[in-house]
Amino acid sequence: ASCLHTKWLGKDLYCYETMDSTNLEIRRLAEAGASHGTVAITEEQTMGKGRRGRSWLAEAGAGIAMSFLLKPQIEAQNSSMLTLVTALAVNEAICETTGIRAKIKWPNDIIVNGKKICGILTEMSLQMDEINYIVVGLGINVNIDHFPEDLSDKATSLQIEGGRKIKRAPLAAKVLECFEKYYDMFLKTEDLSMLQDEYNKLLVHTDQKIKVVRGSKEEIFLSRGINHRGELLVEDEDGKVSEVSSGEVSVRGI
Ligand code: BTN
C-alpha cells in the first residue's frame, strides 16, 4: 500500500491470498457497512465471475484480481458508464506501467493484438430504484506465459505482449490512481462528455463492420464510436445511425 497515491480509493484495502471472488467479497464488505472506496485484491480467485454468467480464472500469482466499492450519488441508469470509465483507467495504467498500448473493445474489454488482456465486471445493488452500492471488478492477465489452446487466440497477457514479467503491485496502484482521475471527470457531468473523445481514440472496430447480437437476432452494422452516454453508435446500410446500450447486446468484429 505504500506505493498507493490515491485520495480515497483503497484507503481501506483488503488483500487476500485466496478468495472465491473479489466482487463477492466487496458485496459482503458492503453489506457489513464498508465505505465508498474500499478495495479487495487477491492472489488467487477460485470462483471468479465474468460477464454473462461466465467464469474468470485467476491463477495464484499470475494476474490482478481486484474489486472496489463505490457509493455514488448518481442516477442508477448512469452507472453502466462506470465500466467504460474503468476501461480508460486500466488502459492508461497499463500504458504508463508497461508501455504497452492497448485498445478497448466496447464496452469494456481491454485488447492487445486483438486478444483480451483485461475484463471488467460492474455489478449494482439497488434499493427502491436507487443505487445502494456498485462493485467494479477487474481481472488483468499479467505474468502468464501461455494460455491453453482453446484460449490462446482470444486471450493474452502483459508478459506475452511485453516479453517480460511485470510487477503487479505498482500496476494495481496505478489502476486505482487513474480510476480516481477519470471518476472525477465522469462525476462532473454524470456522463462521458469529457472522456468520450479519449475513449473513441482507443476503440477497436471504429468504421469497421461489426455484428450486433440481441438475443437470437444478429445484425451487421458499421461501428461509429460511443456517444456521451457510453452507447455505441452503429450505422446500418442505409446510413441510419442508432444507439446500442451495453446491457442488451454483444458486439463482435467480423
Ligand atoms: C469479463 O467477463 O470480461 C469480466 C471479468 C471480470 C473478472 C474480475 S477478476 C476480479 C473480479 N472478481 C470477479 O469475480 N470478477 C472480477
From TrEMBL:
<keyword id="KW-0678">Repressor</keyword>
<feature type="domain" description="BPL/LPL catalytic">
    <location>
        <begin position="1"/>
        <end position="187"/>
    </location>
</feature>
<keyword id="KW-0067">ATP-binding</keyword>
<keyword id="KW-0436">Ligase</keyword>
<feature type="binding site">
    <location>
        <position position="45"/>
    </location>
    <ligand>
        <name>biotin</name>
    </ligand>
</feature>
<keyword id="KW-0805">Transcription regulation</keyword>
<comment type="similarity">
    <text>Belongs to the biotin--protein ligase family.</text>
</comment>
<keyword id="KW-0092">Biotin</keyword>
<dbReference type="GO" id="GO:0004077">
    <property type="term" value="F:biotin--[biotin carboxyl-carrier protein] ligase activity"/>
</dbReference>
<feature type="binding site">
    <location>
        <position position="116"/>
    </location>
    <ligand>
        <name>biotin</name>
    </ligand>
</feature>
<protein>
    <recommendedName>
        <fullName>Bifunctional ligase/repressor BirA</fullName>
        <ecNumber>6.3.4.15</ecNumber>
    </recommendedName>
</protein>
<keyword id="KW-0547">Nucleotide-binding</keyword>
<keyword id="KW-0804">Transcription</keyword>
<keyword id="KW-0238">DNA-binding</keyword>
<comment type="function">
    <text>Acts both as a biotin--[acetyl-CoA-carboxylase] ligase and a repressor.</text>
</comment>
<feature type="binding site">
    <location>
        <begin position="21"/>
        <end position="23"/>
    </location>
    <ligand>
        <name>biotin</name>
    </ligand>
</feature>
